[in-house]
Amino acid sequence: MLKALILIVIATLVAMTAVACDQKGDLEKVRLAEVTRSIFYTPQYVALEKGFFKDEGLDVELTTAWGGDKTMTALLSDGADIALVGSETSIYVYAQGASDPVINFAMLTQTDGTFLVSRDKIDHFEWGMLKGSTFLGQRKGGMPQMVGEFVLKKHGIDPHADLDLIQNIDFANIANAFGSGTGDYVQLFEPTASIFEKEGKGHIVASFGKESGKVPYTSFMAKASYIDKNEATVEKFVRALQKAHQWVEDNSAAEIAKVVHPFFEDSDLGTLATVVERYKSQGSFAKEMKLTKDSWDNLQAIMDEAGELPKQVEYEKLVNTKIVEKVTKK
């Protein structure tokens, strides 16, 4: 009797293990490379943490590349299937004559995500105060730098004539450089900007996102060949993002902060909630996910103004809206 019972238990355990393996095997692996780690990408982390990708049958493996060039290298060398990076990078790749162009298929953010941080506290900030100052800018040719220059020029400031502009510091080390005493002003992403403010290392005085208007700042993209072969996978990916965007829309900043906290363990929940609310209030998260022609034209205008547009590229050549339209229609 005991022997029979043991055999039943063993058989049950084997069956349960087989089911678990089958369930795990059902998940399709997608390698996702993000350009940096930022609260700016909140809907992406919500999709991961809330299991929205898994609900769609996807096992999304996230890596942080720390820079647009490194992100695109990972994508082009097949080290990643999908990249989250500035849309300008797809134009750079196309201009170099890529036989397998990189296609933007969904937007995550639709404004600039950086903030102007002053070393000194300023009660009544005016953009003209930057003239004659040392400005620690972002990497040349990247969206933060181009939008930064666009905004400065909008306020009558020539970045290269009116400022001591520093652009030779690696993206990952800009915050550390400012924290160590370099520059009077710096252009920073969150949550670093708010952390600096909390620690007394700097003070947020303006938002580049509010000043620049809508632009396809960070988009999900993949090589044309990947999308052609894996359109159903990309559709599932976008559907999970749609769920995440809606969840962010429906929940408070405090609740969202709790969900994304595992991705920002060095930040306290209060700071995360402040940052999320800041991005939500200025409409940074691209809930519709569709990269419009107006946004694409604005992107190229900003690149052209910064002297970084290698060539004009037609909207239809590097933007695929069919998948987003199909998902949002459903």
UniProtKB/TrEMBL annotation:
**What keywords sit in the KW lines?**
Signal
Stretch forming the signal peptide: 1-20
| Compartments, as annotated in UniProt | Periplasm
| First-listed, main subcellular location of the protein, grouped into a coarse class | periplasm
One Pfam entry for this protein is NMT1_2
The protein's matches in Gene3D superfamilies, at most eight in alphabetical order, are given as: Periplasmic binding protein-like II
Question: GO CC terms for this protein?
Answer: periplasmic space
**Highest taxon listed in the record's lineage:** Bacteria
Q: Which PROSITE patterns match?
A: PROKAR_LIPOPROTEIN (PS51257)
In which family does this protein belong, per the annotation? Answer: Belongs to the bacterial solute-binding protein SsuA/TauA family.
In Swiss-Prot or TrEMBL terms, this protein is called ABC transporter substrate-binding protein
Protein species of origin:
Lederbergia citrea
